[in-house]
Amino acid sequence: MHPCDGCGRHLKATTKRCPFCDRLTSKLGTVATVAATVAVGLALSACYGGPAPHYPPPTDPTPSASPPTTPGSPIAPDPK
Questions:
Q1: Distance CA 12, CA 14 (A)
Q2: How far apart are CA 78 and CA 80, in angstroms?
Q3: 20 to 30 A Cα–Cα from 61, which one of 8, 30, 37, 73?
Q4: Max CA-CA distance within the chain?
Q5: Tens of pLDDT along the chain (80 residues)?
Q6: Does residue 17 contact residue 10 with C-beta atoms inside 8 Å?
Q7: Residues with Cβ < 8 Å from 11, sequence gap 6 or more?
């Protein structure tokens, strides 16, 4: 669909004459609209680089001061 050059109402792309104002429709507007739509589609598809890369989870570079405990294990006394 595209707007009529005379009255601005929307018409089918295959309409030769506007049924509201009886004006002939221009094919230039239709061709320009299609060309612009294709250009925008190509530009947007060029921006899509695919899925984000999967990186491994970060590791903690500092060693832990105390050994890891498991649930239910007794807490070791502090060796002072």
A1: 5
A2: 6
A3: 73
A4: 99
A5: 878 888 989 988 888 889 999 998 876 666 777 888 899 888 887 777 667 778 887 777 666 556 666 666 666 666 66
A6: no
A7: 1, 2, 3, 4, 18, 19, 25
